[in-house]
Automatic annotation (TrEMBL):
This is Beta-lactamase family protein. Gene3D superfamilies: DD-peptidase/beta-lactamase superfamily. It holds the Pfam family Beta-lactamase. The lineage of its organism: Bacteria, Pseudomonadati, Pseudomonadota, Gammaproteobacteria, Lysobacterales. Residues 70-318 form the Beta-lactamase-related domain.
Length: 365
């Protein structure tokens, strides 16, 4: 009788643990229904039905399950398909978004690209930076050329396996796509501007651009277990709001009649400062990917988060995969669902170039 009571109690405790774990795992990262402060619908100039049908058919049969697709030409929606209004985790697209924020801060005199980590008081408590590492500048962090090869949050196996030896290269000598650089940039930005990333996104970009789905609470900070003092910030944004940022780049920093970010910054940040070893990109700027053959500027995030800016043809494309709004959804996505592929959005760009080209359109910007 006593043994049965013990078994019953153990079963109850186990059930409670399972229920608690499921409840924790299902808790949403963000409120996807949070209201934007200044939502402004975008104008539309739809593709011909036949062309839109061809794109939709190609997306359905040839890609790894694009869940949201939107294409703009000169700021007007050509085609919108799927969950374009759902804020999803941008993954590494956050780095290109941060590049825009740094540009606005630089325009306002709040950021010195030549400031060193030593001057900014950046150091690690558990693995202190060397004197050489402290000479890395803000610009070198944006370029992924800091020469600092420490562990950081949200690393891929590719980063872990490819990381150079500590001290192998001095700051500025070598390109290596390292999350340490990008995570530290988030801290530098907030210290130098006095704004959180969410606040800056809201007031500097979301409100003036009329973003329809963004809220400052859509920026989250991980509790880091990598050994670094600088945690990962995560930005959730919808496809249609991300397309607005692409249009801002396509228009050289102007939205409507307002200058949001300088052309000088965009020229510097989308110039090829490094040559990555990639089949899809042959240049890396200030946290932007570049393809010289297509002459495109791109943002690329894990799981299928892509933004492509085709300035010569006035095109902006976004493709998204929902990588989860809870721990459980994230685990299911990462283990069982295919990731998106940069080749898909580049092919869609080529298809749209052909569909939108006209004898009288020069593509001049």
């Amino acid at each position: 009788m006593r043994r049965r009571s013990v078994y019953k109690m153990a079963a109850l405790v186990s059930s409670a643990i399972v229920v608690g774990a499921l409840a924790w795992g299902c808790r949403p990262f963000i409120d996807r229904q949070a209201k934007a402060q200044n939502p402004v619908p975008m104008k539309a100039a739809p593709l011909a039905a036949g062309d839109a049908g061809k794109l939709a058919a190609w997306i359905g049969s040839e890609t790894n399950g694009i869940e949201a697709f939107i294409a703009l030409r000169d700021g007007q929606v050509l085609m919108s398909q799927g969950a374009v209004d759902v804020p999803m985790n941008l993954a590494s697209v956050r780095k290109s978004v941060m590049s825009l924020l740094f540009g606005i801060a630089w325009d306002r005199g709040l950021i010195d690209l030549d400031a060193t980590l030593d001057e900014l008081g950046i150091d690690e408590s558990r693995t202190p930076l060397t004197a050489a590492e402290k000479r890395a500048t803000v610009e070198q962090l944006l370029q992924a050329r800091s020469g600092i090869y420490l562990q950081s949050g949200a690393e891929t196996m590719e980063i872990k396996d490819g990381r150079p030896r500590r001290g192998q290269f001095l700051p500025g000598e070598h390109y290596f796509y390292n999350n340490w650089d990008f995570n530290v940039l988030g801290v530098v930005f907030e210290r130098q501007t006095g704004l959180s990333i969410g606040q800056a996104l809201e007031s500097w970009l979301a409100v003036p651009l009329g973003m329809q789905d963004f809220s400052p609470e859509h920026v989250l900070y991980d509790s880091d277990d990598s050994g670094s003092d600088f945690g990962t910030y995560r930005i959730h944004m919808s496809a249609r709001d991300l397309a607005r940022l692409g249009t801002l780049v396509q228009r050289d920093g102007i939205w409507g009649r307002e200058r949001i970010v300088s052309k000088e910054w965009l020229d510097r940040s989308t110039a090829p400062h490094s040559r990555p070893d990639s089949a899809f990109y042959d240049g890396f700027g200030y946290s932007w990917w570049l393809n010289s053959e297509l002459d495109t500027v791109q943002a690329d995030g894990w799981g299928g988060q892509f933004l492509l800016v085709d300035r010569d043809h006035d095109l902006v494309l976004v493709t998204r995969r929902d990588n989860g709004n809870s721990i459980l959804e994230f685990l299911v996505f990462s283990q069982f669902k295919p990731e998106g592929h940069p080749a898909d959005i580049q092919k869609l760009d080529l298809m749209l170039r052909e569909m939108t080209s006209t004898p009288g359109h020069s593509g001049a910007h």
